[in-house]
Each structure stands twice: as C-alpha cells, then as structure tokens.
Amino acid sequence: MPNFRVKPRYILFYKPYGVLCQFTDEKSTSTRPTLKDYISIPGVYSVGRLDLDSEGLLLLTDDNLVKHRLGHRDFAHKRSYWVQVEGIPTPEALAKLSQGVIIKGELTRPALVKILAEEPPLAPRQPPIRERKHIPTTWLELTLTEGRNRQVRRMTAAVGYPTLRLVRFALEIGRGRELTILGLQPGQWRELNPREMKVF
Predict the structure, then answer these.
(1) What ranges do the domains of the chain cover?
(2) Could you say which of 37, 51, 53, 62 is catalytic?
(3) pLDDT given at position 145
(4) How far apart are the first and last CA of the chain?
C-alpha cells in the first residue's frame, strides 16, 4: 500500500488585540476570543506566542521541526515589532535597549532599536489605546532574537517608557527571508506561498 505523506500546513495570521493565542480557553469563565474563532484548520499550532494585549504576526503550523527551529531561542531568529511607548525615549534609553536590560535577574540579548519618523501603517486598534493629553507617544521599531514572556513590554518599562501598543510585524524564517503582516488586516490569515515554503 503506498505511503502518502501529508504536506505540512503553514498559516500566517494577523492576530488582533484581545485574542487568546491558543485554540481553547480553559482558564477563564468568560468568552474570550481564541484562534478557533478565526482559523478552522485542524492540527496547527502557533510558533511562539503573542500576549492577549499584543497584535500582529503569528505563524501556525503542524510541522514540529519548523516549530522548534523558529520558536527556540537557541536559533536566534529575528522577531521585529512596532512599539508605541509613552513619552519620547532619550538616546540613553535607546542605548540601553540595544545593549540589553535586566529582566528577572537576567540580561536580555542585544536588540536593534530605532525611532520611527512616521506612524506605521496599521489599522486603528479596537479598543483604542489610553491617551494622556499632555504626554506624547513615540513609535519604535524593535528587533529581538529571543522571545521571553512579555519581553518587549518589560524592556521598555525597564528604561522608563511603558508600552502602549505592541505589534509584531515580521519574523525571520531563514536564508535571509522574513514573513510580514503587510497585506493582511487584523483577523485575516493566508497560507504561505510555495516560494516562502522553500525556506523550510
């Protein structure tokens, strides 16, 4: 009898704010939205996670090898974020972020960070962020090579600039290529195209 190998699935999803990064919600009695409300493909799971209050790129797959290779910090794949912070970070604060900050007694890896001259091309968040009339906000582009729990929020808070909105917009997948959320709106998803899948 022939042995047919089922092709793995690779799904790029733009996770909206307030969506739980799993298919079931066993810890809450409320009806929080989960991945199941958007994706009805069986057997796929997210590569890494995004917090409930974070948005953006999420890769889902049933390919366990790819999940390990892209999700484990030992492989140091780049993850890029647009981060709206309260206030205008000083050069000293940006230098600290780029060099690494102490989180729970451990130094984060060096990061790439820059101030964006313009607001990134994002749909308005629902609900909107809290705004204080007399305190400006700044958009940063921050690229990490690890994904600790709530790492970006803890890093910006550690240098004195709390995160108001956090969107992961790109994920390095290897061979100099990356996936981005460009072309998707919150709640939309697509399968990777053959050219993207060649990296795997």
Answers:
(1) 10-192
(2) 51
(3) 93
(4) 28
Given a cut of 70, the residues of the chain with pLDDT beneath it are 1-5, 28-29
- Would you state the structure tokens that stand for residue 42, as one six-digit string? 């069986």
Q: At the fourth CATH level, which superfamily is domain 10-192?
A: Alpha-L RNA-binding motif (3.30.70.1560)
Mark whether 51 is an active-site residue.
yes
Q: Residue 174: which residues within 8 A CB-CB, separation 6 or more? A: 69, 77, 199, 200
Between vectors from CA 185 to CA 81 and to CA 36, what angle results, nearest 5°?
A: 95
Per-residue pLDDT, 76: 76
